[in-house]
Amino acid sequence: MPQRFSVRVQTRGYELDQQGHLNQAVYMQYAEHARWRFLHAAGLTPDVLGAAGIGPVLLKATVRFQRELRAGDEVDVGCAINGGRGKLVELTQPFHTPEGVPVARIEGVIGVLDLATRRLLPDPRALLHKLAPRPDVLGPNP
């Protein structure tokens, strides 16, 4: 069983909104950072993906905010592949305080783009597992 993947981020003062909590758009930036760190941990760096002529693309994201974050707070942003079929992969990205308190949750759908044809490739989960030097980080490949 793979270890649960997450990265810790500390909020910065310039990321706050008028109410003094983390701006809603910044959650998406943190999620993007975590997705790239997730791929990198599996060995799927931008160079590896580029050499294969492919790139991940976010197709859908839904955010559920559960608790505010303020300047200097730390948050663990997870990333896990939950499923998917055809040309789509489903991701879950939970945000928790270091103590485990839920802060937000992003449910997303990604695909893998053929950079030459600009089309989504079939079975992206299997493709990523095959290309990854450390596929166990990505979780099981059904």
Written description of the protein model:
It contains three helices and seven strands, in the order βααββββββα. It is elongated and about 45 Å long. It has helices at 24-41, 46-51, 124-131; strands spanning 6-10, 54-65, 74-78, 80-83, 89-96, 102-114, 119-120. The chain has 142 residues and is an alpha+beta fold. Helices cover 23% and strands 35% of the residues. It has a single domain (16-135), classed as Roll (Thiol Ester Dehydrase, Chain A), CATH 3.10.129. It starts with 5 loop residues before the first strand and ends in an 11-residue tail after the last helix.
Question: Could you give a short description of this structure?
Answer:
This protein is of the alpha+beta class. It has a single domain, classed as Hotdog Thioesterase (Thiol Ester Dehydrase, Chain A, Roll), CATH 3.10.129.10.
